[in-house]
What we know:
By secondary structure, the chain is an alpha+beta fold. It has a single domain, classed as CATH 3.30.1330.40. Helices cover 31% and strands 29% of the residues. It is built from three helices and seven strands; from the N terminus they run H-E-E-E-E-H-E-H-E-E. A hairpin with a 2-residue loop joins strand 3 and strand 4. Helix 2 (60-82) crosses helix 3 (107-122).
Amino acid sequence: MTGTVEAKLAALGITLPEASAPAANYVPFVISGNLLWISGQISMANGSLMTGKLAGEADIEAGRAAARQCAINLIAQIKAALGDLDRVKRVVKLVGFVNSAPDFTDQPKVVNGCSDLFVEAFGDAGRHARSAVGVAQLPFNVSVEVEAVIEIA
């Protein structure tokens, strides 16, 4: 049976991928008390990396799409951790890292691609605190990486 959040995702045309395995010596998520901490998820769709430095090789719309893919990958990790997306009580915090050229300052516009999907999928419970940080480089030259803290019901 599909839950409310999964029905919203389906209505948006989103099929969750398998949660990706860690690429190094860490775990994809940790549950501590009623909080789920999710390791950074990169902008990768169907095995293809969404790459490029913002305001260099990629524009804001490509960055937003990459951030939205990070949200999909984060939600896949939530599903792997909890089994049921309706167990999300609140999206507490997102931290978005944007692969940025030195003069690029629109990181918040890019990370909105992730934030917007969380609100679409989880409604008011998807509204969260957030940081959007420009960095000189990200693994594999991906455009965006986002990590999350989720409160579990």
